[in-house]
Design a protein that fits this description.
Blueprint (H helix, E strand, L loop, with lengths): L3 E4 L2 E3 L5 E7 L6 E9 L6 E7 L4 E3 L7 E6 L4 E6 L8 E9 L2 E4 L3 E5 L2
Parallel strand pairs: 2-11
Antiparallel strand pairs: 1-3, 3-8, 4-5, 4-9, 5-6, 7-8, 9-10, 9-11
Length: 115
C-alpha cells in the first residue's frame, strides 16, 4: 500500500508563498506521474499541476506563472512552490502518485490564504 505524506500547508497572506512537499513512505517502482490536486469547500477536486518521471509538467490555467512543480525521482518526492497566492487558492491540497498499480492519494494539507 503506497502511503504519501504531505507537508508545508498553512496560513499565508495574499501575495505570499508556500512550498508543499509530498514523499512516498517507501521507494515506489514504476512511478509515472506525481502531482497535486486541490479541493475548496463545496467544490470538486481539481487539477493543480502534474509532472512525469521525465520532467514534463502540466498546470491548470489558474496557477500558471505562479506555481512551480518539481520532483526528486530518487526519493519519490514531489514539491509545489506556490507564489503570489490569492484567496481563491484556499483549499485542501492533495498529492497524487500514479504508477502501474493505479492512483494513490495523500491525506491532504490545508492551505489558507487570508489577511
Amino acid at each position: 500500500q503506497v502511503q504519501l505524506v504531505e507537508s508545508g500547508g498553512g496560513l499565508v497572506q495574499p501575495g505570499g508563498s508556500l512550498r508543499l512537499s509530498c514523499a512516498a513512505s517507501e521507494f515506489i517502482f514504476s512511478v509515472w506521474v506525481m502531482g497535486w490536486y486541490r479541493q475548496a469547500p463545496g467544490q470538486q477536486r481539481e487539477l493543480v499541476a502534474t509532472i512525469t518521471t521525465g520532467g514534463v509538467t502540466n498546470y491548470s490555467d489558474s496557477v500558471k506563472g505562479r506555481f512551480t512543480i518539481d520532483r526528486d525521482n530518487a526519493k519519490n518526492t514531489v514539491y509545489l512552490q506556490m507564489n503570489g497566492l490569492k484567496s481563491e487558492d484556499t483549499a485542501i491540497y492533495y498529492c497524487i502518485l500514479v504508477n502501474n498499480s493505479g492512483r494513490h492519494w495523500g491525506q491532504g494539507t490545508q492551505v489558507t490564504v487570508s489577511s
